[in-house]
């Protein structure tokens, strides 16, 4: 099993910045991807940004140029730097990871519990 612990959400004014962190722990053999999704009220959960173990990144069009995903493989941690936030970014942000765990050596998708980001004046 993998546990994902998120931190860094909160209330910020339009144009402001926040940095989210997500640390993975558990019986991890290998992490293949770590990423961030978000879900606004009344909307489906959507991918925000993804980071692969090879260093490839993928972003939603709505956040390109404003958000940056990065990782620290030694700490099994992923970060999301969010700049120039606007009210449309308000959502619960969920950390995700696809990982292989022991003793089964099977891979699956894991989710964090989510952290609220609110952009409002």
Quick take:
With 121 residues, the protein is mainly β. It has no helices and eleven strands. It is elongated.
Task: Describe the structure in your own words.
Strand 7 and strand 8 form a beta hairpin. Strands 2, 4, 5, 6, 9, 10 and 11 form a 7-stranded mixed beta sheet that branches. A 4-stranded antiparallel beta sheet has the order 1-3-8-7, with no helix packed on it. The mean pLDDT is 96. It has strands at residues 2-7, 10-12, 18-26, 28-39, 46-52, 57-59, 67-72, 77-82, 91-101, 106-111, 115-119. By secondary structure, it is mainly β. The protein has no helices and 11 strands. 0% of the residues lie in helices and 61% in strands.
Rough outline: elongated
Please give the share of residues in helix: under 10%
SS elements, strand count: 11
Average pLDDT over all residues: 96
Compressed to H and E, one letter per element, the order equals EEEEEEEEEEE
From the N-terminal CA to the C-terminal CA, the straight-line distance is: 40 Å
Largest sheet: 7 strands, mixed
Q: Give the helix/strand class.
A: mainly beta
Residue runs with pLDDT of under 50 for 5 or more positions: none
Number of helices: 0
Rg estimate, integer Å: 14 Å
* Strand fraction: over 45%
Draw up the topology in text:
Elements: E1 2-7, E2 10-12, E3 18-26, E4 28-39, E5 46-52, E6 57-59, E7 67-72, E8 77-82, E9 91-101, E10 106-111, E11 115-119
Parallel strand pairs: 2-11
Antiparallel strand pairs: 1-3, 3-8, 4-5, 4-9, 5-6, 7-8, 9-10, 9-11
Keywords:
mainly beta, single chain, seven-stranded mixed sheet, four-stranded antiparallel sheet, 121 residues
């Amino acid at each position: 099993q993998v546990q994902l612990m998120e931190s860094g959400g909160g209330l910020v004014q339009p144009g402001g910045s926040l940095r989210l962190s997500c640390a993975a722990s558990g019986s991890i053999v290998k992490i293949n991807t770590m990423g961030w999704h978000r879900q606004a009220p009344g909307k489906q959960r959507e991918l925000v940004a993804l980071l692969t173990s090879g260093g490839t990144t993928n972003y939603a069009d709505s956040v390109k140029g404003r958000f940056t995903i990065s990782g620290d493989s030694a700490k099994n941690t992923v970060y999301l730097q969010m700049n120039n936030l606007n009210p449309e970014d308000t959502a619960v942000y969920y950390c995700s990871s696809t990982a292989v765990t022991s003793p089964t050596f099977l891979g699956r998708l894991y989710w964090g519990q989510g952290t609220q980001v609110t952009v409002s004046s």
